[in-house]
Amino acid sequence: MLTEFSIIDKFFKNTPKNPETRLGIGDDCALLSIPQGYELAITTDTMVEAVHFFPNVNPAQLGHKLLAVNLSDLAAMGATPIAVTLALTMPHIDENWLTEFSRGFLKLAQFYNVDLIGGDTTTGPLTLTVQAIGLAPWRQSLKRSTAKTGDLIYMTGLLGEAGLGLKILQGYDCDAENALVRFHEPMPRIEIGFALREIASSCIDISDGLASDLGHILKQSGVGATLDFDKLPLSDDVKNYIESTGDVLMPIISGDDYELCFTIPPRFANRAPKNCTAIGIIESELGLRLKKSGQIEILTAKGYEHFS
Ligand code: ADP
Ligand code: MG
Questions:
Q1: Which of 18, 73, 126, 219 has the fewest Cβ atoms surrounding its Cβ within 10 A?
Q2: Rounded to two decimals, what is the model's pTM?
């Protein structure tokens, strides 16, 4: 029978690689040092079985996604991840599950040079919590509250891929492999987030959907925006989905893409990173609008709010 300590030894051992990690797993606390000129960016996200993931999900992909969604929050602040803690609550000890889960988790951690420095292991309904810690140069983090009228709105990658992946899992018939990969194994946009610190006026990661997440920037910045539907970066699979279902808003209101949505003052537009698309503009008129086929509709986090 595996105990908490043998579980950690067997599945979660990792040698700290960052110079900031002075002490990793094994003591009452881990110890991190903060280099001069930096501040810590700290975030946490929990995933509960049947709430945030399907009970039959591939555990390696679950390990990847759990870490990815936390690292995505650091990316959205322009922070570089250095360390994470992992709190595992499991109904029973399933060695195969732990082998796969830890493989997916640690593979992504290694990719971004993130140390697993501690955690907790308890019994109960399957619940996974990560706390991620990153370094951000002093006072240079990207916030939600600092978008300005006239700024251009950009996003990384493609919109609605994960949403399409979810539709496929729910029965929509199509063989869009990329959509399933984006749903199960999103990649946090760490490098782009870091590069954005010098040019972006605000940033958020798209976890709940573009309309909802951009809405947070708008609300906290006290501004509004218009998105241009024709400029949204949609894959052929998503375009086909829209054509065959008429579900125009799916990419805008579905979550889980973990792309970055950010604003750039026009004078920095020529410095926008590659693989990013300008999708709209920040305006002084409050609210979120969508321009499509010459018409302007008002958008809410859940969809259209037609003019009355
Ligand atoms: P304590 O009783 O002081 O909370 P624990 O017995 O819970 O310590 O944990 C022992 C060590 O193992 C600690 O360093 C803790 O951070 C680490 N740890 C526990 N669970 C995990 C986990 N799931 N992943 C990584 N480290 C863990
Ligand atoms: Mg403990």
A1: 219
A2: 0.94
